[in-house]
Design brief:
Blueprint (H helix, E strand, L loop, with lengths): L2 E5 L6 H15 L3 E6 L13 E5 L13 H16 L3 E5 L1 H17 L5 E6 L14 H9 L3 E4 L2 H10 L6 E3 L11 H6 L11 E7 L7 H14 L2 E7 L4 H10 L6 E5 L4 H5 L4 E4 L8 H8 L3 E5 L4 H4 L6 E4 L4 H12 L2 H15 L4 H17 L3
Parallel strand pairs: 1-2, 1-4, 2-3, 4-5, 5-6, 6-7, 8-9, 8-11, 9-10, 11-12, 12-13
The protein binds ligand GMT.
Length: about 375
């Protein structure tokens, strides 16, 4: 049994979801898990035994234009590590977590307390934000000063090595799914009649509605598809481009076919209704949302950005197109949903492929890293 601190964003973003699911799964296996973040993580189930939550609180002070979150986070890390005698600090998303962890480690070193730091790179902490000149130096430093570094796809590992001068090995550990949340009987008994007529195909998209997700492409793809095949679109999530998406839906006059469902922690329950999932992202290190859709037996139409080709298998679980190639995505979507046999085949393939990413396959890889750092062997 190990005592593990997990630092993450507590929001609906993929990195926070992965960190929370990882922590809860580790706790179920008997490890003691301490979440350290500024809010209770949205997917955290407090009924899980061995799970603790430590809130990082930043006092507002008028002198500061920006409140010093990293300082408060480092202090909280030090406090929790000392009080609960943690063995490992696992930070998810490099900015600013890996940097704060380095500071905590230095403070603890002065007190004669060793702590091992694992950094998991999730995507935009490398591709969009981390490599920006404003952050690059500090991100590179904190990667190189971690005790172990993981990336969520081969593609993200490659991007990290291309964009930074990395002097430490990076291990790829994919995003994963807890299949207990996707019981087969639930998928089969999933009742679609509240959302669509029997002849309608259900298409879904989940994201934080940021520009990187190319929400307008989602609406354009659906607009073209529904002209040929009766269908409904579920827009799950929320974010800066929701209004833009709603306006576009109005302009296309398809309000009666598109449901904006907002944020939910029950994606598994909604996705079981879907036949097709759209993820035309500009960049996507892995695409946890696509994997969650596949676990709900949903075929995927996506872009070929980043690590999406490691998740969505072209011609088998769905199709991949160049970023922005809406016409190709429309044709691919129609080729699946206009043929009921093909749709069934792709949906089944998606579920089968998703099973490779089951929690039981992935969790031991993280545990092995922890054991190597703490005990010297896996
Ligand atoms: O996709 C987002 O905008 C959220 C982001 C995050 O960091 O919370 O997700 C990233 O991490 C996920 C979990 O590892 C990956 O599955 C997503 O692909 C990745 N997003 C991007 O690379 C844009």
């Amino acid at each position: 049994m190990m005592k593990i601190g997990i630092v993450c964003y507590p929001t609906f973003g993929g990195s926070g979801v992965v960190a929370t699911e990882l922590g809860m799964a580790l706790a179920k296996k008997g490890h003691e898990v301490h979440f350290i973040t500024y809010n209770q993580p949205v997917r955290l189930d407090f009924m899980t035994q061995n799970v603790f939550f430590h809130e990082v609180f930043v006092e507002e002070y008028p002198l500061f234009l920006y409140q010093p979150y990293e300082l408060a986070l480092s202090s909280k890390m030090v406090e929790v590590i000392i009080q609960y005698k943690l063995h490992i600090l696992h930070v998810h998303y490099a900015i600013p977590h890996a940097y704060a962890a380095f500071m905590a480690k230095q403070i603890l070193k002065e007190k004669g307390i060793p702590i091992k730091v694992v950094t998991t790179l999730h995507g935009t902490d490398i591709t969009l934000v981390g490599s920006h000149p404003d952050y690059k130096t500090a991100v590179e430093f904190s990667i190189n000063n971690s005790d172990a570094v993981t990336a969520v796809s081969e593609s993200l590992k490659k991007d990290t090595l291309r964009l930074f001068d990395v002097k430490i090995p990076i291990e790829v550990i994919y995003n994963f799914i807890d299949f207990e949340k996707y019981p087969n009987d639930e998928i089969q008994s999933c009742d679609r009649k509240n959302l669509a007529a029997p002849n309608e195909v259900i298409i879904a998209h989940i994201s934080n509605f940021r520009p990187v997700k190319r929400i307008e492409d989602v609406i354009k793809i659906f607009y073209n598809v529904q002209q040929k095949v009766p269908s409904k679109l579920l827009m799950i999530g929320d974010g800066p481009l929701r209004e833009t998406a709603e306006k576009l839906v109005k302009n296309y006059n398809i309000q009666d076919k598109v449901y904006f469902l907002g944020k939910t922690t029950d994606v598994n329950k909604l996705l079981c209704h879907a036949d097709l999932f759209l993820l035309p992202s500009q960049t996507e290190s892995f695409g946890l949302a696509a994997l969650e859709a596949m676990a709900g037996r949903t075929a995927v139409i996506s872009s070929n950005a980043g690590g999406l080709s490691e998740v969505n298998i072209h011609g088998k679980t769905g199709y991949l197109s160049n970023v922005g190639d809406v016409d190709d995505m429309v044709n691919n979507a129609l080729s699946i949903i206009s043929d009921p046999k093909k749709l069934e085949l792709f949906k089944n393939n998606a579920l089968v492929h998703a099973k490779q990413f089951c929690q039981d396959n992935v969790l031991p890889q993280y545990e092995c890293i922890y054991r190597k750092l703490v005990h010297g062997c896996c």
